[in-house]
Amino acid sequence: MISHLDWRDVTFFVYTLPYADKFFYYLSYKCDLPAKRRLWEKLIELRKSLGEGVWCILGDFNTVGGSDERRGVNEGVSSGQREEIILFNNFVREVELEDLNVLGRRFSWYHPNGRSMSRIDRVLISEEWGILWGESSLWVLPRDVSDHCPLILKEGGWDWGPRPFRFNNFWLENRDQHMRI
Q1: Shortest CA distance to 61 belongs to which of 93, 95, 85?
Q2: Domains in the chain, ordered, with CATH?
Q3: pTM over 0.70, yes/no
Q4: What does the pLDDT look like over 65-82, one tens digit per residue?
Q5: Residue ranges with strand state E in 86-169
Q6: Nearest to 121 by CA among 32, 46, 27
């Protein structure tokens, strides 16, 4: 089931999985700090009202979790940006979700000129998510059309790449095998 919610400046989709209390949330919202604070407060309120369960919140959070998640123009952290970083990290702690580390690329957003980049797209998961799905990994892929990179959330942790091709010579000795090839 998909529910669509609109709070003043937030678009919010809730995907309820067929088994009880499993939710995916995708969000997008305005970039100003008051709008972000309203969203974070709503999500904390929603998490507290629905209680424990399997949670995965993903989307463009339009904020970084630290100065190391931004490179390029305006690398220095202003007092307003410092406040936003502190508020965001407090939100993640209060909502009791884990911000998955990224694999592949370090940044998820690139300015079209290539000079600025940030990690603003995130996946936050609950402890129960980890229990249900096991270790998850978040991969940032190369961008193509958008200024955002696609994210892939994978079950099972590390991706060791494609499986190698295997061939056993004894297959050639089986006359029926040739028919199948």
Answers
A1: 85
A2: 2-180 (3.60.10.10)
A3: yes
A4: 998 999 986 667 788 889
A5: 98-99, 102-104, 109-110, 117-118, 121-125, 136-140, 151-155
A6: 27
